[in-house]
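#lab-general

N.A. 3:47 PM
ok so I finally got the sequence cleaned up, no stray characters, all 60 residues accounted for. can someone with queue access submit it? mine expired

B.Y. 3:52 PM
send it over

N.A. 3:53 PM
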Amino acid sequence: MKERACKECKRLTDLEVCPVCKGQTSPDWIGYIRIVNTEESEVARRLGIQTRGRYALKVR
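B.Y. 4:20 PM
back already:
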C-alpha cells in the first residue's frame, strides 16, 4: 500500500484517516522530514510539529 500524508498535520501514515488529528490523508505528497527531538528541533518549531515522527513537506 502506498504511503499517505495527512492534509491537516502532514504526518505520514498508511491509513485513510490520520491517527493523530483524524484528518483526511492524500497519496499525493512530496518530500519528507523525520523529527526525532521536538524540544530541540528548530525545524519542528517552525513547522509547528509537537510529536516525533515522519512528516510530508508538501501535500496536495
